[in-house]
Every structure is written in structure tokens, then in C-alpha cells.
Amino acid sequence: MTHFHPVALEHASRLINHGPTVLVTSRSKDGSRRNIMAAAWSMPVEFTPPRIAIVIDKKTFTRELVKDSGAFGICIPGAALADLAYAVGNGTGRDGDKFSHYRIDASTGPVLGLPVLEAGCAAWMECRWIPEAHTEDAYDTCFGEVVSAAADERVFQRGRWSFRDDNRALQTIHHLGAGNFVHAGQVIQARPLG
Ligand SMILES: Cc1cc2nc3c(=O)[nH]c(=O)nc-3n(C[C@H](O)[C@H](O)[C@H](O)COP(=O)(O)O)c2cc1C
Questions:
Q1: pLDDT tens per residue, range 99-141
Q2: Could you tell me the pTM of the whole model?
Q3: Residue 138 belongs to domain spanning
Q4: SS3 for 68?
């Protein structure tokens, strides 16, 4: 039974608002190649339609596939997938299919047909790549429009994250460097001053 449910696109930006490490998925236009890499640098940049920015090094295989297909997926791993996030971020898919190598069970995204991960992940998004002629060859930053999103209801409900003691394995991870991550951590609810 899946715990994943669609996320309204107006809430999609909240999935990466707090800066989790994500897994970027991609596929070639003809569907013969697919790939996955880790990315610590991503952020929402537009409300409507929801658009995000993500840094995908120009040298990566991921970038090659994103340019080829015009799309990329963002999967948000829970703490249980920290080892996998580190592994797919230290090796290139040019050398072989990382999904097979790491026995990653991927589903197919409903709108763009991208590989998306549910087991061990808190959420995923499919993004249509927005080519920017003046930045494309100069910068590693890529822009994308979110066209579908879903999240595990045990950790994200009604457009809000809910981090609790009983869902730590699904809590997002944040990269400190050199394979060290922290959990999203304890929630602090801000109260009105005065
Ligand atoms: C935790 C972690 C975070 C990373 N963050 C980024 C990032 O934000 N942008 C980036 O271009 N590479 C990042 N990397 C490096 C890529 O994941 C790495 O270059 C990867 O091997 C590229 O794979 P590919 O050639 O199969 O696309 C990160 C690696 C790790 C382990």
C-alpha cells in the first residue's frame, strides 16, 4: 500500500523550502538511459506556476539527460536513504545504470514519465526544464516548472511538513559536507511577539 498522495502544485514549493538534500532523476528522450544524482543546492523561485532552481553541474551525466529530454525529477529522501544519497552523489551514471547497481525501485512519474522514488522518500516532483539561452552554458543552475508532485502522508499532510518522533526515518536530510547529514530536527513554532 502506498502512503503517497498528490500534492497541490500551489504547495509544491514547500517540499524544498527548507533546503533538503534531494535526488535528481532524469531520462533520455528515447527512454534508453536513466540516471539519478544527489543535489544539496535547490530552492523555490516562483509561486505561480511553481518554479524551482537547482544546481546541476554542467559536467554531470544528469545535465546531459536533462538537456536531451527537457525534464528532471526531484525525489526527497528520508533519513533512511542517507547512504543511498551519498552513493549516487559519488559516481556517474555514464559508467552504468545506478538504479540497477543500487537496486533502486523507481516508479514512473504521471506527467513526464520520469523515474520517481517512493520507498524511503518523503516526496517527489516532476519538473519541466526551462531552457535559458543566456545562462545555459555559463552556469550550473537549472530552472524547472513543477508539473506534478506527491508526498508521503505520514510526513507531509495538507500542504505542511509534520516532523515527529514516530516518522524520523522519513524526515528530510540536510548535507553538512563529506557525507555528514543532519535530520530536519525538532520543530520550533514561532509565536507572535509582544
Ligand atoms: C550530498 C551530496 C550533495 C550534492 N549536491 C550537488 C549539487 O547541489 N549540485 C551538483 O551539481 N552536484 C552535487 N553533488 C554531486 C553530484 O551528485 C555528483 O557529481 C554525481 O556523481 C553526478 O552524477 P551523474 O554524472 O551520474 O549525473 C552532490 C553530491 C552529494 C554526495
A1: 999 999 999 999 999 999 999 999 999 999 999 887 778 899 9
A2: 0.98
A3: 4-183
A4: helix
